[in-house]
Amino acid sequence: QLVESGGGSVQAGGPLRLSCVVSGYIARRTCVAWFRQSPGKERKGVAAIYSGDSATYYNDSLTGQFVISHDADKNTVYLQLVSAKPEDTGTYYCAAKAGYCSLFKVEYPHWGQGTQVTVS
Questions:
Q1: Which among 16, 44, 50, 64 has the fewest CB atoms less than 10 Å away?
Q2: Going by DSSP bridges, is the β-strand pair 110-111/90-98 parallel, antiparallel, or unpaired?
Q3: pLDDT digit string (tens) for 7-30?
C-alpha cells in the first residue's frame, strides 16, 4: 500500500514536500517513483529512487525542479518541489515496482491515491 500526503496550496516560488509511505512487501529491491497528472494532461514520471543503492532518476524536462529522497527506516519516499511554479499544479502519485527504476507508468503495478497540489 502506498499513501501520499503533503499536498495542498502553495504560492509560486515556495517549496513543498510530498511524502509517500510504503507499507507491505513488494520485493527485496524496489523502485518508488513520483508521477504528476496536470489538468488535461497525461500522467508523467517526475522522479524515481531505487532502494538498492538510493540511485535517483529524474525526468529530463524537469531537471532541477524536484528532489527525491527516502528514509528507509520510515519506509517513506519524499518529493521536494524546490520552487513551485503554476505548471506544477496537478495530482501527484507515488508508485512502486520491483527491480530497477523507470519513469514509465505502465511498468508500475502499485499506486497510491494521489495528493493534489495547487500552485498560485
A1: 64
A2: antiparallel
A3: 999 999 999 999 999 988 877 889
Short-list 112, 105, 88, CA closest to 15: 88
Q: Is the separation of the CB atoms in 51 and 72 below 8 Å?
A: yes
Identity (one letter) of the amino acid at 43?
R
Catalogue the E-assigned strands of 23-114. 30-37, 44-50, 56-58, 66-71, 76-81, 90-98, 110-111
Asked if 70 and 78 count as a contact pair (C-beta separation under 8 A), the reply is yes
Question: Which residues neighbour 25 within 8 Å (Cβ) at sequence distance 6 or greater?
Answer: none
Which whole number is the average pLDDT over 86-113?
Answer: 96
Whether the CB-CB separation of 8 and 114 falls below 8 Å is answered with: no
| 19 in Cβ contact with 115 (< 8 Å) | no
3-class state of residue 105 by DSSP: helix
Q: For cell 531505487, what's the residue? A: 50
pLDDT at 58: 96
Q: Look at residue 94 and tell me whether its pLDDT is greater than 90.
A: yes
